[in-house]
Amino acid sequence: MEKFVVIDTETTWTDEVMSIGAVIADSDTMLPLESKYYILDPEYRAGGMYLGALLHRDIKNPIICSRLEALNNLIDWCKNNRVSKVFAYNSVFDKNHLPELGGMHWFDIMKLAAYIQYNHKIPRGMPLCSTGRLKSGYGVQSILRMLTGDTAYQETHNALKDSLDELKIMLLLGYPVEKYI
User: What is the pLDDT of residues 58-111, one digit of tens each?
Assistant: First the structure.
């Protein structure tokens, strides 16, 4: 079974990573197999726009540790699961904030989700760039609302919950992992 990991980060007011959510998924089914959630100490103490979502009621036993401990654990976890592919929504943001994972292969979920030629749930008549990408409204919340039809859906801005939502986008789009490469 081939696997990949979906990663999301949340940052402080000073643009430091304060939490990391990671979900290992099966490449064939796009379903989650395992997850990890790290709260970085002391970084989270600086606060951030989404500090209130750091401890989400649905997440049991977050790993509160230093950045070094979190990244070493995450790298070992991926190696032990033979995972080398990382997916993220707007992957440039997360990759730039996690240079320790620079040796892995990063792919952007947004490269399919935000384009009319790949996301057939994008309503016709929406303003598009010449490439077919939505001009606006292509964040995780907007895309999940389009794909599910659930107009009440609200992104939590919790790194683990958001990584699960990003995996759900991949599942709902229905493309194999290779399509993102």
Answer: 888 899 999 999 999 999 999 999 999 999 999 999 999 999 999 999 999 999
Domain carrying residue 157 = 3-180
Distance separating alpha carbons of residues 132 and 144, to the nearest angstrom: 18
Verify cis geometry, omega within 30 degrees of 0, for the bond prior to 99. no
In whole angstroms, how far apart are CA 60 and each of 12, 36, 137, 147, 148? 22, 10, 32, 28, 26
CATH number for position 45: 3.30.420.10
Contacts of 53 (CB under 8 A, 6+ apart): 10, 156, 157, 158, 161
Length of the chain: 181
